[in-house]
Amino acid sequence: MSEPRSPRADPRDGAPAGPRDGVQAGMLDPIEAAAPRWRRPRLRLGRWSAPLGILGAAVAVFWILIALLAPVIAPHDPLAQDLPILQAPGEGTLMGTDALGRDVFSRVLWGAQVTIPLALLLVVLSVLIGAVVGSVAGFFGRAVDEVAMRVTDLVMAFPTVILAMVIAAALGASLVNAVLAALIVSWPSYARLTRGLVLGLRSSNYVVSGQLLGFSAVRSLGRDIAPNIVGPVLVLASLDIGTAILLLSGLSFLGLGAKPPTAEWGSMVSDAIKNFDAWWIGVFPGLAILTVVIAFNFVGDALRDALDPKSATIKGGGTTL
Amino acid sequence: MTRTTAVRPPRSRGGRTAHPFLRYALRRVLTSLLLVVGVTLVTFVLTNLVPGDPVAAALGQRAAEDPAIVAQFRATYGLDQPLVVQYFTYLGNLLHGDLGVSTTTHNPVVDDLAKALPATLEIALGAIVLSVIIGVVLGTIAAYRRGKASDHVLRVVSLAGLSVPTFWLALVLYYVFYFQLHIAPGSGRLSSDFSTPPHVTGLYTVDALLAGQLDTFLDAASHLFLPVLVLTLYTVGLLTRFVRTAVLEILDQDYVRAARAKGLPTRTVIWSYVLRGASIPILTVVGLAFGSLLSGTVLVEAIFAWPGIGSYAYQAASHLDLPGIMGVGLLIGVMYLLVNLIVDLLYGVLDPRVRLAS
């Protein structure tokens, strides 16, 4: 489930020590005043090749392939109600059939096509909106900053799922509205993170000297600042894919996402409440959610180890100076 | 830096200023109040500005076509007033405890919520206590054994805990422990052969103990077991990871190194130095975890037919009962703010720098 966020103290908030420390350390040193060159973070093999990251990536790719190939590999039409109802797994079908005589296995496969692309879309949109709002707020400060941060405060005053539930309900139950609701609750964490990073970099010497040379704000933000905030934002985004999947399937579980005939994992688990003894109806779609989310979380965790600006400067700082 | 030391910080004129902690607390309370107003604004906007005409919904198709009836309806419910006026009416209603009438249960939402709240508090309190204990212990172990096998195992376990869809975990545990193994009792808060203990707090376990009904207490506790377990597993992952980071940071501090160097027993170092230093980040996470717990109850209670806020939200959501859902959102939003306010005030108690700063 998505992480709840406090209105006041988001641990992900604020500028990581990384790039900022590097620039502030040598205030008047002309070499340090030059832009810290964006070095592609060295993917430290020791950590990155940690089996977890690889395993996660493999499982994630596996599920993405399933999403792409579902129409080919699914043995039945996911919506067709032409099988005997509540058949146990093994008696003709791999994962049994549900109360309407639909093949659970085929529905799980097709479900990948619903949840995974929507979750990826959700994360991409949240990153874009959050990064734009956060950069503008951090760079220009003053009223823009004030307004943007008060809005994020407001969104973060609610536990994520609850606010998403309230918004989705008000908009009306549909998958598009669920994504919209999830988007409204997801972008502020990126805005906060980006703002903190931009705020830290804005006054650094290399950005200030660019401004003195007459660079436009867009140039400063896009060419000078952006490369130095990509890493942390990417880490947060990769860890958020799992959260997005849990949020969307949770909304569908509540009946605020996918509409009934759709093969969506969360609503399939919800179907199981009415048929407790037919365990296979709920167990398999839930396992699908669990494996996808854990895969993306493993990848995100490994990425964080590889890209973490904090550990990067500790290492980099020691060798370059 | 050296120059600024010459400039004395402005001193408060004796006796005029309030105690720093009071000032700090007052500021936090005011911010929280502003956020509460913000929360009501959100629910107001969502109930009133959202597509879908409330008039048509309330009156039905035929009546909504008659302009006279519509005008009268709008006047009766104040819908012809400007939005600002409508908002203040809405706020006034809230202050009178009027959250509207649920379209599913046809009861005032506030009564429904009042009835459901103790049930949710019972599992939420149980889960928060358990997960704080387990999370702090596991997180500290992971930090101490950084890079060792146990750290890696705990990393996998906590990541897995964060990845499990709670509503599914609830379903699986219920199926295994109730349907298959018959260890756990069935759904609800009490078995059918027990009667509700006399109402004091609304928490059945506490009420049963107060009334001296030990068997009722045991039955209520056994019903609590599975829902609390699910919610605990859900927050423990979050807590373990945050506590690990917080403790790692403290372990790096000179004062901890000094304490270890002078040969203090590990237990003393952990309790009096490390955990004390890490208490502020840990408190923050507990506030956050409480939010995830409240979200969790919404997704979990329906499975155990636990008659709390979560089941109410599930029912309201699946029937698109807007007043019901908004009531839940408002209640949980305010509860979450309250918990975070308490956390903020505890900061001030634990760390003098917080209350003295600015």
Structural class of chain A: mainly alpha
Strand content of chain B: under 5%
What is the terminal separation of chain B in angstroms? 18 Å
From the helix content, strand content and strand pairing of chain B, which structural class follows?
mainly alpha
**CATH topology heading of one domain in chain A:** MetI-like fold
CATH architecture of one domain in chain B: Orthogonal Bundle
Annotation field: number of helices of chain A:
13
| Overall 3D shape of chain B | globular
**Major sheet of chain B:** none
Q: What's the count of strands of chain B?
A: 0
Gyration radius of chain B, rounded: 25 Å
Compute the CA-based radius of gyration of chain A: 23 Å
CATH class of one domain in chain B: Mainly Alpha
Proportion in helices of chain B: over 70%
Strand content of chain A: under 5%
Q: Largest interface, with Cβ-Cβ < 8 Å? A: A-B, 55 and 66 residues
Q: Give the mean pLDDT of chain B.
A: 82
Protein name (chain B): Peptide/nickel transport system permease protein
Keywords (chain B): Cell membrane, Membrane, Transmembrane, Transmembrane helix, Transport
Membrane topology (chain B): Multi-pass membrane protein
GO molecular function, one term (chain B): dipeptide transmembrane transporter activity
Give the arrangement of secondary structure elements.
The complex is a heterodimer of chains A (321) and B (358).
Chain A: H1 17-25, H2 30-33, H3 45-48, H4 51-73, H5 104-140, H6 142-156, H7 160-171, H8 175-202, H9 205-212, H10 217-253, H11 265-272, H12 280-307, H13 309-320
Helix pairs in contact in A: 1-13, 4-5, 4-12, 5-6, 5-8, 5-10, 5-12, 6-8, 7-8, 8-10, 9-10, 10-11, 10-12, 11-12
Chain B: H1 20-48, H2 54-59, H3 61-64, H4 67-76, H5 83-95, H6 109-144, H7 149-163, H8 166-180, H9 204-210, H10 214-251, H11 254-261, H12 266-277, H13 279-304, H14 309-318, H15 322-350, H16 352-356
Helix pairs in contact in B: 1-15, 6-7, 6-10, 6-13, 7-10, 8-10, 8-13, 9-10, 10-13, 11-12, 13-14, 13-15, 14-15
